[in-house]
Design a protein that fits this description.
alpha/beta, six-stranded mixed β-sheet, four-stranded parallel β-sheet, 18 helices, binds guanosine-5'-triphosphate, binds magnesium ion, ribosome binding, GTP binding, GTP-binding
């Protein structure tokens, strides 16, 4: 049984192994709540304290209601009052407020006891082929006041974070956000918001609080201290790293994710100091500090060893790529936001069997396949890892080796899910990462995918026609794929050079390669060979140089 979500906080050397369940088990201290407002799945709910105003009733299926029971309230007919606690209906016969509270408390305790057995059992879910404990998560975001740059709004960003949490195998029980001019350096959010989240933690038995932006190690530590012992605090970066960790299927991907996780972990190791300090009851001063230094040193050594290993894998990959270069078929790379449909397009065009599904980050490793066009021409198509807004820099750096595929391609095809309401923002996020990868010199073709899913496909198609670099397709239905291949061919032709060469009869294989990778205008058979006039890729033109010298123009 693997317990994936804790992996960020448990690098190899600090792995606490199977104690995860007990450390991150549902909080047994679920207490009655004070007055607060919460946003759950986009809806606003208000709660009142059990002690003062009445009975706040929280159902386990996330629906919330409120039942008022003032001190002098009459019991229901027959002297019985029905109670609903966490979706379980019970009956209380007493009409005294005190007695009712007591019974409620007992039931609540009973519920916690059950959680530790049956409910907890039911929360092991199969994710990405692994069994993951479905922790209860609460999401927190910050909207910067005056942010009008057209980027992702806070609600959209939180909704994406919810999808990420779901992909990681967490159960999102609520979310909240705050508009701030500047972030609080100590706790990222204001103290009022911190108190509100604390209430939510108690109300829902939240086990993990996830922030939508990267937190500094200090903020992380302060928030964990404030929220209390068993509640874990993490950020978007940790969540994405965890998904990558769950999804890494090859050794290279696993190594890269491990490196990114360790680099993320290194400055945050201080968290373990507080943990050790707690274990020592605060009495053995300095012990935690010493331990953290040891841990950091081990982690640094592991990072160095991992980098070496990745370098050797990278060398192999380069050798393989060089071999591919000797066959001068142009390489076209698919790039784009996660879930845009890159793998679906590769599968459709090449008959490949790359995992394509309605989940974020389905693909981590590049896959290259040969595309044979109807006119006999060929190009290599590479599927790459998808991008996301606020992509952690550690991850971009770690995947730089994989993304070398992108920087060495002849053409980039930017696949966009045009049916997505935030398509424009997703395009901007992808362009930002591409700029980081220094791909400005590589020509681009933009593909508006999922046109079948758009609310007005005809409008989208006519928009696309106005733009020379945009092709409209549906990778799912196959619509527009011929246009796509022709556009790729045209783009590739722009990058080819014009040659006229006399190919000797004993080099017949060169002639067929020209036909495969180039665009032949004319072939004439003369006494000592074939005189070819064609556009060919630059690399191939170099191979033809000796034959070009004897070319009869
Ligand atoms: N309606 C519709 N759905 C599509 C189309 N293309 C892809 N999809 C769906 O979109 C989802 C994501 O597709 P993928 O091909 O896995 O997307 P991806 O870009 O490879 O995603 P990552 O690997 O996460 O980067 C899948 O459920 C596909 O079936 C399309 O043209 N139309
Ligand atoms: Mg994919």
């Amino acid at each position: 049984m693997s317990l994936c979500f804790c992996s960020i906080l448990k690098p190899l050397i600090l792995n606490r192994g199977q104690d995860f369940v007990s450390r991150w088990a549902p909080n047994p201290n679920i207490k009655p709540v004070q007055f607060f407002n919460l946003q759950i799945h986009g809806k606003d709910f208000s709660f009142k304290s059990v002690h003062t105003d009445g009975v706040g009733v929280i159902y386990s299926d996330d629906t919330v209601s409120e039942r008022s029971s003032p001190p002098d309230a009459e019991p229901e007919a027959g002297g019985q009052a029905h109670e609903v606690v966490n979706g379980v209906t019970g009956t209380a016969t007493e009409d005294s407020r005190e007695a009712t509270s007591e019974i409620r408390l007992k039931k609540s305790q009973g519920r916690v006891g059950n959680l530790e057995e049956s409910d907890k059992e039911g929360r092991f879910k199969l994710r990405n082929g692994r069994e993951v404990f479905e922790e209860k998560a609460y999401l927190v975001g910050v909207a910067r006041k005056g942010d009008t740059d057209g980027s992702f709004g806070i609600e959209e960003s939180l909704s994406e974070l919810e999808q990420l949490a779901d992909t990681a195998g967490l159960l999102v029980v609520g979310s909240t956000y705050q508009k701030l001019a500047t972030r609080n350096p100590r706790t990222y959010i204001g103290s009022g918001k911190v108190a509100e989240i604390k209430s939510a933690i108690h109300a829902f038995g939240v086990e993990t609080v996830i922030f939508d932006d990267e937190l500094s190690p200090g903020q992380l530590r302060n928030l964990e201290k404030t929220f209390g012992g068993d509640v874990r605090v993490c950020d978007r970066t940790a969540l994405i790293l965890d998904i990558f960790n769950q999804r890494a299927a090859t050794r290279e991907a696993a190594l890269q994710v491990s490196l990114a996780q360790m680099e993320y972990q290194l400055p945050r190791l201080t968290r373990m100091w507080t943990h050790l300090e707690r274990q020592a009851g605060g009495q053995v001063k300095g012990m935690g500090e010493k331990q953290i230094e040891v841990d950091k040193r081990i982690l640094r050594d592991q990072i160095a060893a991992l980098k070496k290993e990745i370098e050797s894998v990278r060398k192999h990959r380069k050798q393989y790529r060089n071999r591919r270069v000797s066959v001068p078929v142009p390489v076209v790379s698919l790039v784009g936001y996660t879930k845009a449909g890159k793998s679906t397009l590769l599968n459709r065009l090449t008959g490949a069997d790359v995992l394509a599904e309605d989940k974020l980050f389905a693909t981590l490793d590049p896959t290259t396949r040969r595309v044979q066009m109807k006119n006999g021409k060929e190009f290599l198509l590479t599927d790459t890892v998808g991008f996301i807004q606020k992509l952690p820099t550690t991850l971009v750096a770690a995947f730089r080796a994989t993304l070398e595929e992108i920087s060495e391609s002849s053409l980039l095809v930017h696949v966009v899910d045009i049916s997505h309401p935030l398509a424009k923002q997703q395009i901007e996020a992808v362009d930002k990462v591409l700029a980081e990868l220094d791909t400005s010199s590589i020509p681009k073709l933009i593909v508006w995918n999922k046109v079948d899913n758009a609310s007005d496909p005809e409008k989208i198609k006519s928009e696309a026609k106005k733009n020379a670099d945009v092709i409209c397709i549906s990778a799912l239905t196959g619509e527009g794929l011929d246009d796509f291949c022709n556009a790729v061919q045209e783009k590739l032709k722009d990058m080819m050079v014009w040659v006229e060469a006399l190919i000797p009869f004993d080099k017949g294989e060169l002639l067929s390669t020209i036909h495969h990778v180039g665009m032949v205008e004319k072939t004439e058979y003369v006494e000592n060979g074939a005189l070819v006039r064609a556009h060919v890729p630059l690399r191939f033109a170099r191979i033809l140089t000796p034959m070009r010298q004897i070319c009869v123009s």
